[in-house]
Design goal:
277 residues, mainly alpha, 0% strand
């Protein structure tokens, strides 16, 4: 009987592992395919065969003309995503902290925070653009687009912080307050280091969701395009492996950012453990 249970457990484990591998392959093989096609030769197209191997299309990114220069949109999207990440961190931590205490209307507050996820992005962007025009506010990537993006990224950061605080032992904070620490000092020295993984996760959500957001940006950006809008505009003109090159570059930088945050968190935990010993 015990052997049968162990065999079933192993079979379930193997089955779940195979499903996970298939899912990861389904998710990453298209990205790897586009990355491979980005190294096509100067005469290469957007499909196989590659017609040579070179860095031609990466060089084209830096020698681009005004019509297909992706560098300004890339800078705008990066700055916008960084601002959304910082704003998402601050607001999500504040909102999750507020939800820890029971207050009148906390259920309505919770669902209000989730409206950004439930509302269709293209309708949100279109409605916000109409409202801004009625108010006489000029559309721009660093004002109106920023506000719309934060309404999209904040719920994800909020849910992340709620999950972190759900496992948080408030008695640690109470002990610090009992020993004479102020609430600000308690948050800075006790709470923040413990919830730091969630803070980093909320920031990564804010950056990644804002960086490639297209529907909410389409009507609210104004004359200066972000990277997703520039890429979609290029698709209307001529599709070249240059699109694959910029996609591969941004993917690599995103992975580097995630690895950097993970390494920094691991180093901080190791430093804390070393001090305790």
């Amino acid at each position: 009987m015990k052997l049968d249970w162990k065999l079933r457990s192993n079979l379930v484990g193997w089955a779940l592992g195979v499903i996970t591998v298939i899912f990861l392959a389904y998710q990453w093989l298209p990205i790897l395919t586009l990355g491979l096609l980005s190294f096509a030769g100067p005469t290469g197209g957007t499909t196989f065969p590659m017609n040579g191997v070179s860095f031609h299309w990466y060089e084209e990114l830096w020698k681009a003309t005004v019509m297909n220069d992706f560098k300004p949109p890339l800078v705008r999207s990066s700055l916008l995503a960084a601002a959304c990440a910082l704003t998402t961190i601050v607001l999500s931590v504040m909102a999750a902290q507020a939800m820890r205490g029971k207050f009148l209307g906390n259920s309505a507050f919770f669902y209000l925070m989730l409206l950004g996820i439930m509302a269709p992005g293209i309708l949100v962007g279109f409605g916000f653009a109409i409202m801004m025009r009625l108010l006489g506010v000029e559309l721009a990537w660093n004002t109106t687009t920023f506000l719309v993006h934060v309404s999209w990224t904040l719920p994800f950061g909020f849910l992340t912080m709620l999950a972190v605080f759900n496992r948080f032992d408030s008695r640690i904070e109470e002990a610090a307050l009992t020993l004479g620490a102020s609430r600000i000092t308690t948050f800075r020295r006790i709470t923040l280091p413990l919830i730091l993984p969630g803070v980093i996760g909320a920031g990564l959500f804010g950056f990644s969701l804002s960086y490639d957001e297209y529907p909410r940006s389409m009507f609210t950006t104004g004359p200066d395009q972000t990277l997703p809008l520039a890429v979609m505009g290029q698709l209307d003109r001529q599709l070249t492996p240059e699109i694959y090159a910029i996609g591969t570059t941004t993917t690599v930088f995103s992975l580097i950012a995630v690895l950097f945050c993970t390494s920094a968190l691991w180093a901080m935990r190791r430093s804390t453990s070393y001090r305790k010993t």
